[in-house]
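## retry 2 of 3
previous attempt timed out at serialization; input unchanged, resubmitting
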Amino acid sequence: MNFVVVSSIGAVFMGILALFVRMKAAKKPTNALKIILPPVFMSSGALMYVVPQFRLTPMEIGEVVIVGMLFSILLIKTSKFEIRENEIYLKRSKAFMYILVGLLIVRLGLKTILSTTIDFGELSGMFFLLAFSMIVPWRIAMYLDYKKLYRQLQGQH
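## retry succeeded, writing output
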């Protein structure tokens, strides 16, 4: 089976997993570690760039980072916190589900188109960096929003 097909199937399952994790997370209070740790754990994936097959040119890095940061705006806009019962919770957003599915469809479309002209290893490196470039700004924005509410909660006591 083709690498692009297998990795696309994996991306669909990861997207579904992300939706379930997000829905479950909205039921429990959050904290700074829950916001910060996902990109920290994901950063270990950058070890792929040790292998020359996955390395990107400076132009590709710039393009992918810009696209990832633009996509992160959608995630930032749909990730808000609220205070309930003196705890900070992530608000449920119906739009988040549609945006995540939409981003997944765009990603699969891009992967299908680009796989005809870009080597699989290089394409893998590009899509890892795209995901990382989306998650880092999103999580930074979430952390800043969380800290604002956290200070507000501390001021109440």
